[in-house]
Amino acid sequence: MTSIALVGATGNLGRHVAAQALAAGWRLSVAVRSRARLLPEIAAHAQVSDIDLASAASAQIASFAAGHDVFVSCAGVVTEGEAFVDLVERIATALESVGENERPVCWFLAGAALLPLDNSGRLGVDLPRVRSTYWPHRKNYERLQRSPLDWRLLCPGPMVEEPAMGLKHLRISLDALPAPLPPITQALPAPLVLPMFAMKIPEMIIPYADAASVMLANASPENSMARRRVGVALPAGMKGKKAQWAAQARGAG
């Protein structure tokens, strides 16, 4: 039986990861600050550890993760800035302290702005307006690149509570935008690339359920996603909607 250790199980994405893992018959362990926030069906079937990631010692996180096949971090949000960077640093350091034979495959979460926009290697986080909010994704990626962990970094656009499309319908990319920009992008300055990038974001607004499925379907050691940034987009021609992103995009344009 596959075993999974999950942090962030009370959040929107974490709840889907937990539910799908249980539905697949996996052994689930979750670390939470407040058990009261767990969905009843998760609390009833998971092994629950009381861990506040904001103050937990490295040894406590390591003990929680050790011996599992998979570790998934859905904790923290990019708008927390340095606090989010510190969280990923402490989780990565804790996992690195686990013995190699007990160390799980690790999934972390970033965003589409971390993906290369063109062959020059320019990233979404290099663009004006985007950089000021999403810079922690770059720092977390650079931290993982220095790590010996078997990690994968999911880089979706905004996520929404909608029915799953299903893996076979998604566009999935490695270290590239799944909804590519036109080739002319490479010759344009960043201020002109920004609205082009903004226009692509609706194609990368995916259901939480699909984001969870991508991670759980690619949890075997050293598969093609190992140590890669993973982009996800809706089927070609389809766009998602999220009110918060729409307002930001209008401002960026």
UniProtKB/TrEMBL annotation:
Lineage per the UniProt record = Bacteria, Pseudomonadati, Pseudomonadota, Betaproteobacteria, Burkholderiales
Record-linked InterPro entries: NAD(P)-bd_dom, NAD(P)-bd_dom_sf, Polyketide_Oxido-like
Q: Which GO terms describe its molecular function?
A: oxidoreductase activity, acting on the CH-NH group of donors, NAD or NADP as acceptor
Ranges for the NAD(P)-binding domain? 8-168
SUPFAM superfamilies linked: NAD(P)-binding Rossmann-fold domains (SSF51735)
Q: Which organism is it from?
A: Variovorax beijingensis
Name of the featured protein: NAD(P)-binding domain-containing protein
Check the record and name the PANTHER family matching this protein.
FLAVIN REDUCTASE (NADPH), NAD(P)-BINDING DOMAIN-CONTAINING PROTEIN
* Pfam families, per database record: NAD_binding_10
